[in-house]
């Protein structure tokens, strides 16, 4: 029992982090069908925002909390610029978008290499997170609980936005039947843009969380982008519940395999399992059922 | 309409994800050069200049570390030019970008040797980049000076290794741990050739010293999170952690280490890759932990004082100095010394001079001497403890320079069979 607690808790926290990183993709990729390979660099933008905020505001206790909304806006704004300048010309051409955004990602990475200290920057963990909680004898890092709560908050906010607001209904209408939504007076152009803002903004929030765990340097995005796409695809496009379950399963199973074998073997096992799963069920865990023809 | 689009997308995405995974696993392989006679050299040093090639990653993930090495090489070239050049000829540096891509390193090395016709090349950082350059530089009988500590078990008549080999960094670190009274040790490393080879050596030496290895963990270079592995360290309660993690992956490890409630008071870390430049980027005060290097910025010597002062004045400098930078700086001066002893830029004459003469340089780390047989350098090993200002206080030293022994032939606890297996595995 004792040996199960650490991997379970840490895996859940890893899954929660993956979920925040993937939520934005679930929106832009899952709902809008845009393969945005620069999503990883939006994570990086969030992490760098956390660093810059710490440079401006001396109190690390406060700055990390302030960094969350600022990173949301910064990454969201980057997303809108990308949508308006590159992606809008390529809707319905997912593979072209993929290539173009890979290029954008490379440009952003090189910009970060040139603009920030070459060894990467250190985001300091605030004192109030620098503790452990005793869970049945295992000293669990408090930062892990923070990640899980943050994922919960992001998820609730996004679910509430989609379910209860008029804008959320417009997004869902656009996803289910774009042409019909337009005939009902929904500006799908505006919906696309705001969806992209929210999706990219969530990447910024995930970036702040990642900056507390990993190195903030130009390679940060590439470390998470594959896993984030994996989770969205395995969860199924168009619905959030699939993404949630997939993120948790990938997080916890990776942690258990890591505990039983090694980090490298665990990654291989999980990737192979997901690839096999996608062979059997290419549409992922859940799909949207629509009355749309064809 | 959306249904089919979604399905098409998800299939595309599945294929894409698989492709990304596969490509991220695929390593670069460079075909070994056939052992034929080297093509005739096109190097022309009849004028009053000599062209030297600098091959560093200026873009991609390794640019983080290699840009500084490149700048240091340029600084050394400027200094040598200001004091008259090599054999009276001014250095004309030709900079190429290895782009953190190993086949690119091989291509650019070939370009430098055959198109630019440089007299020698300097650079590289990862062992993979060195292994990509090796067959090329051997094929064209060129010269490559490699400035970073590495896993040893290699020597080439066309490569000079100015960083430490294992018996000048890892073995002294183990001697230090023994002197500290360490009984149990946990090994944490990145998952590639250097940590795997280093840990194989550490385990053999630990058995000899009576230190028990209570755990061994590796994390792939592209994975950031160490929380699960650090939970294993907490459980194993080792006296010390031996850290062979590379570059920025250290940050994830250090953060997870402090988050789990570990500290240098209870479980100190000794690292072979955290230097003056990396320590401030850890996102946590890492003071109290240790690192094993040959050069530290805190070394007190006139040569080091000059090196530090020159670097701080150099345009685009990174502020602090570190071991790989210093080894790169030394490499250019050693080359100058070799050429001037040989009286020629010819590679065979240089190699003959390396064997015949005692090639030394009064380096910032102290007097270093080239071993003409294995092309490595005698160096003093130092252990530094990280201070709150991210400088290192030297707490242990080998005192005298340690002769390089890349194949560990002088160590009876290192069996020949293991050596052969490791050399074979490293390719």
Automatic annotation (TrEMBL), chain A:
Keyword Transmembrane recorded: yes
Family according to the record: Belongs to the binding-protein-dependent transport system permease family. LivHM subfamily.
Coarse class of the protein's main subcellular location: membrane
Official protein name in the record: Urea ABC transporter permease subunit UrtB
Membrane topology: Multi-pass membrane protein
Segments forming a coiled coil: none
Lineage: Bacteria, Bacillati, Actinomycetota, Actinomycetes, Propionibacteriales
GO BP annotation list: amino acid transport
CDD domains: TM_PBP1_LivH_like
GO cellular component, one term: plasma membrane
Entry keywords, A to Z: Amino-acid transport, Cell membrane, Membrane, Transmembrane, Transmembrane helix, Transport
Pfam family, one: BPD_transp_2
Annotated transmembrane regions: 16-35, 42-58, 64-86, 138-162, 194-215, 245-278
InterPro entries in the record: ABC_transp_permease, ABC_UrtB_bac, BCAA_transport_permease
């Amino acid at each position: 029992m004792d040996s199960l607690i650490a991997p379970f808790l840490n895996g859940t926290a890893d899954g929660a982090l993956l979920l925040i990183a993937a939520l934005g993709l679930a929106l832009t990729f899952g709902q809008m069908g845009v393969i945005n390979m620069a999503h990883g660099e939006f994570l990086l933008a969030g992490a760098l925002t956390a660093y810059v905020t710490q440079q401006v505001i001396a109190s690390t206790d406060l700055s990390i909390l302030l960094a969350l909304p600022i990173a949301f806006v910064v990454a969201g704004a980057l997303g809108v610029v990308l949508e308006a300048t590159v992606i809008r010309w390529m809707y319905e051409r997912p593979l072209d978008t993929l290539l173009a955004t890979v290029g954008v990602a490379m440009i952003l990475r090189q910009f970060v290499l040139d603009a920030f200290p070459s060894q990467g920057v250190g985001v300091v963990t605030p004192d109030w997170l620098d503790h452990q909680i005793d869970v049945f004898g295992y000293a669990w890092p408090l930062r892990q609980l923070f990640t899980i709560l943050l994922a919960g908050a992001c998820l609730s906010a996004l679910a509430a936005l989609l379910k209860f607001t008029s804008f959320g209904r417009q997004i869902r209408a656009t996803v289910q039947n774009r042409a019909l939504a337009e005939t009902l007076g929904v500006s799908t152009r505006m919906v696309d843009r705001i969806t992209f803002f929210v999706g990219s903004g969530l990447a910024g929030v995930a970036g702040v969380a990642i900056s507390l765990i990993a190195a903030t340097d130009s390679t940060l995005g590439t470390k998470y982008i594959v896993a984030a796409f994996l989770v969205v695809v395995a969860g199924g496009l168009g619905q959030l519940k699939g993404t949630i379950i997939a993120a948790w399963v990938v997080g916890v199973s990776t942690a258990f395999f890591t505990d039983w074998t090694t980090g490298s073997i665990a990654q291989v096992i999980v990737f192979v399992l997901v690839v096999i799963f996608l062979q059997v069920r290419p549409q992922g865990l859940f799909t949207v059922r629509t009355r749309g023809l064809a | 309409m959306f249904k089919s689009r979604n399905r098409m997308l998800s299939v595309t995405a599945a294929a894409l994800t698989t492709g990304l995974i596969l490509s991220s696993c695929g390593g670069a392989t460079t075909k070994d050069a056939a052992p034929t006679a080297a093509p005739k050299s096109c190097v022309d040093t009849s004028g009053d200049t000599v062209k030297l090639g600098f091959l560093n990653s200026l873009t991609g993930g390794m640019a983080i570390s290699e840009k500084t090495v490149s700048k240091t090489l340029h600084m050394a070239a400027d200094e040598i030019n200001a004091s008259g050049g090599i054999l009276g000829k001014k250095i004309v540096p030709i900079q190429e970008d290895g782009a953190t891509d190993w086949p690119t390193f091989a291509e650019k090395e070939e370009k430098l040797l055959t198109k630019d016709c440089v007299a020698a090349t300097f650079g590289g950082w990862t062992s993979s980049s060195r292994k990509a350059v090796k067959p090329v530089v051997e094929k064209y009988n060129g010269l490559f000076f490699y400035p970073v500590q590495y896993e040893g078990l290699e020597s080439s008549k066309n490569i000079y290794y100015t960083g430490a080999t294992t018996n000048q960094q890892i073995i002294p670190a183990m001697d230090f741990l023994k002197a500290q009274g360490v009984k149990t040790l946990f090994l944490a490393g990145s998952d590639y050739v250097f940590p795997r080879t280093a840990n194989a050596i550490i385990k053999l030496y630990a058995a000899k010293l009576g230190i028990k290895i209570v755990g061994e963990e590796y994390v792939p270079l592209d994975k950031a999170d160490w929380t699960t592995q650090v939970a294993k360290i907490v459980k194993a309660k080792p006296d010390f952690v031996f850290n062979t993690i590379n570059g920025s992956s250290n940050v994830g490890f250090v953060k997870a280490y402090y988050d789990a409630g570990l500290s240098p008071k209870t479980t100190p870390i000794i690292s072979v890759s955290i230097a003056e430049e990396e320590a401030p980027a850890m996102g946590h005060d890492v003071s109290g932990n240790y690192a094993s290097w040959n050069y530290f910025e805190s070394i007190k010597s006139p040569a080091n004082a000059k090196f530090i002062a020159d670097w701080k004045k150099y345009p685009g400098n990174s502020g602090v100095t570190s071991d790989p930078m210093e080894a790169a700086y030394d490499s250019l001066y050693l080359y100058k010394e070799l050429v001037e002893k040989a009286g020629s830029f010819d590679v065979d004459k240089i190699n003959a001079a390396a064997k015949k003469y005692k090639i030394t340089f009064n380096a910032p780390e102290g007097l270093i001497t080239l071993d003409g047989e294995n092309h490595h350098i005698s160096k003093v090993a130092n252990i530094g403890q990280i201070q709150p200002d991210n400088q290192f206080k030297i707490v242990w030293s080998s005192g005298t320079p340690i002769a390089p022994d890349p194949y560990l032939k002088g160590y009876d606890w290192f069996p020949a069979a293991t050596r052969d297996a490791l050399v074979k595995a490293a390719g």
